[in-house]
Design a protein that fits this description.
Layout lengths: L1 H22 L2 E7 L6 H14 L4 E5 L7 H5 L7 H6 L9 E2 L5 E3 L13 H17 L2 E5 L6 H7 L4 E6 L3 H17 L5 E8 L2 H19 L4 E7 L2 H8 L4 H4 L4 H15 L13 H9 L3
Parallel strand pairs: 1-5, 1-6, 2-4, 2-5, 6-7, 7-8
Antiparallel strand pairs: 3-4
Helix pairs in contact: 2-11, 7-8
Length: 292
C-alpha cells in the first residue's frame, strides 16, 4: 500500500512538474534597430548559455538570406527553414545540432514568400511548430536587422522581445525607434534591453538608464534592463575562429556578462514590472498572417 502511494505521489509530482514546465515555455524575438551591433552573436551565445543552464533551447535564424548562425558556430546545416516550405523536407530534418549540442534551424533564401504560402503549407508549419512549443523551454528567433512588414508579424507574436543596442548615439536612436514601433502595435509585449560593446561600466549603465528614462517618459511603460556586455577582444577572436565566445574563453569579461544575462533571464530576476498576459505564439502568428 505504501509503495503504491509512493508511486502515485511521484506520478502526480511529475505531472505537476510537466505542467509547470509547459507553462513556462517562451518564444523570444531578438532584434536590433540597426545592423552591426552584434545581434546574431548575442543570440547564439545567449541560446548556448540558456542551453548550458539546463533549459531546452531552440535557436531559429530568421535573418533570411543574411543568416550567419552557421558561420559563427563553424557548422553547416544540411537544410534550412526554406526547405520545409519549398522542398517539403520533414520538419525534424531541418533542426540541426550545432555547437555543444544546441539545436537550431538555419536561415535560407526566398522566405519573403512566407506570408503568401498556400494554406495547406502554413497549416503544416503551425502544426509542427505547436509541437516544438511543448518540446522546448525557450525558442529564440534571431531576427534580421531593422523591422520589416513580415518580421513584425513574428515579433508581435512572441512572448518576449530582446532589443540589442550599443552606446553609440545612432544605435540608441534606432533602438528606441524600433521599440516605439513595436509598442504602438502591441503595448503589452515585454521589451528587454541589452547594451553590447560597452567600453566601461559607466558606459553600459548610462545607456541602460538613458533608454529606460526615454521609454518611460514617452511610451509610458517599463523597459526591462537585462544588462550590458563589455567590448572584449575575445569576442572578435572567437568570431575569427568560428567559435562561440562563451566557450572560446569562458573567463573573459564578455562571456561572464553573457552568462549572467542568461541566468537573470532564465530565473526572471527583474525589479521592473511587466505584463504576464500571454497567448500562444501560434495563435497570434496565425492572426497576424491572415490579417488583410
Amino acid at each position: 500500500m505504501t509503495d503504491q502511494a509512493s508511486i502515485l505521489r511521484k506520478k502526480i509530482e511529475q505531472l505537476n512538474a510537466n505542467r509547470q514546465s509547459q507553462s513556462n515555455n517562451k518564444t523570444l524575438a531578438i532584434i536590433s534597430g540597426k545592423g552591426g551591433v552584434g545581434k546574431s552573436n548575442f543570440s547564439l551565445n545567449f541560446a548556448l548559455s540558456l542551453h548550458n543552464q539546463g533549459y531546452r533551447t531552440l535557436l531559429i535564424d530568421m535573418d533570411i538570406g543574411m543568416g550567419n548562425i552557421d558561420i559563427l558556430m563553424g557548422t553547416q546545416s544540411r537544410y534550412t527553414i526554406v526547405d520545409f516550405f519549398r522542398n517539403s523536407i520533414d520538419f525534424e530534418n531541418i533542426i540541426t545540432k550545432g555547437f555543444d549540442g544546441l539545436e537550431y534551424i538555419a536561415g535560407g533564401s526566398g522566405l519573403s514568400d512566407f506570408v503568401n504560402m498556400e494554406d495547406e503549407k502554413l497549416d503544416s508549419f503551425f502544426q509542427h511548430f505547436q509541437g516544438l512549443l511543448n518540446r522546448y523551454d525557450y525558442i529564440l528567433f534571431d531576427m534580421g536587422a531593422g523591422i520589416s512588414t513580415d518580421s513584425l508579424k513574428f515579433i508581435l507574436s512572441v512572448d518576449d522581445c530582446i532589443v540589442i543596442t550599443t552606446p553609440e548615439p545612432t544605435s540608441i536612436t534606432d533602438a528606441y525607434a524600433a521599440m516605439k514601433f513595436i509598442h504602438t502595435r502591441n503595448p503589452l509585449l515585454p521589451l528587454y534591453l541589452v547594451v553590447n560593446r560597452t567600453f566601461t561600466r559607466k558606459d553600459g549603465v548610462e545607456t541602460l538608464q538613458k533608454l529606460q528614462q526615454v521609454v518611460k517618459k514617452f511610451l509610458h511603460r517599463d523597459l526591462i534592463n537585462l544588462g550590458y556586455i563589455p567590448d572584449d577582444q575575445n569576442v572578435a577572436q572567437a568570431v575569427r575562429k568560428q567559435m562561440p565566445f562563451v566557450f572560446y574563453n569562458e573567463k573573459s569579461e564578455a562571456a561572464k556578462a553573457l552568462r549572467e544575462i542568461a541566468d537573470r533571464y532564465g530565473k526572471q530576476q527583474f525589479t521592473e514590472s511587466y505584463s504576464t498576459n500571454r497567448h500562444t505564439f501560434v495563435s497570434k502568428l496565425k492572426r497576424f498572417l491572415f490579417e488583410r
